[in-house]
Amino acid sequence: MPEIKEKYKSLFAKYSLEQKKQLYEAMTDFFSENKRQLLDQNIQNRTKHLTLVMEDIFQSQNASAVLRTCDCFGIQNVHIIENQYEYTLNPDVALGSSKWVNYYRYSKKNENNTLLAYEALRKKGYKIIATLPHENDVMLSDLDVTQPIALVFGTEKTGLSQDAIDNADGFVKIPMYGFTESFNISVSAALCSFYLTEKMRNTPGLDWRLPEDEQVEQKLYWARQIVRESDKIYKKLAEDLGLPTYEF
């Protein structure tokens, strides 16, 4: 999905589950049955149990590749910290993935956006895991996935900031057996995303899927990406259904 700006963070949150279902069903008349099936199928594999965090990634191709990776592995949310560098989408690399993945920016001026992001993530119940070799780190294969994880990746040249390291809850590293000491950021994100989502999906009893209410709400957001003038249509549909017409 496009960037979740402040005014869109609770666009559908005021509706009840049944009202969201009504609105979504009405909206499906505006796109094909094939697209509806894709949305219904893909939402079953989406998760917020694992989220990726990028701190000051300045090469647009790398940051955009991470969005594409998240979409491929069903990771719904990405958090982008902008202390020094502003995130720029590279459409040739993202290949439309920004329509389907929610990404949140932390870019307040004169603020430590790393700490703001960490605070917001902790309020959502995430354990913040920094990706770097560290004396107290664990191997990727040993990382516990039973608790929601926010996996943090640093800038291409210097890695994570000291604030990102000092305020993390834990550290993880990818096993390497060559002379080179690190992977490219997009490769690291892909390796971690593959391994951890597979481990998550295969952990018995782990409730990693989106709750029903969030599934319907996410499909409402997705529909905004495939229907022209969707906000006007949503407003009209809400009126026709006798639902409150919030600001779309």
Architecture overview:
By secondary structure, the protein is α/β, with parallel strands linked by helices. It folds into two domains: 10-42 and 212-241, no CATH class; 47-201, SPOUT methyltransferase, trefoil knot domain (Alpha/beta knot). The chain contains nine helices and seven strands, in the order ααβαβαβαβββαβααα. The chain has helices at 17-27, 33-43, 60-73, 91-94, 113-123, 162-166, 185-201, 212-226, 230-241, and strands spanning 50-55, 77-81, 102-106, 127-131, 138-139, 149-153, 170-173. A seven-stranded parallel beta sheet has the order 3-2-1-6-4-7-5, sandwiched between helices. Helix 3 links the parallel strand 1 (50-55) and strand 2. Helix 1 (17-27) runs parallel beside helix 8 (212-226) and helix 3 (60-73) runs parallel beside helix 7. It is globular, with a radius of gyration of 19 Å. The two termini are 16 Å apart. The model has no long low-confidence stretch (mean pLDDT 90).
Class derived from helix and strand content: alpha/beta
Number of strands: 7
- Helix content, binned percent: 40-55%
Assigned CATH class of the largest domain:
Alpha Beta
What's the pLDDT, averaged over the residues?
A: 90
The oligomerization state is single chain
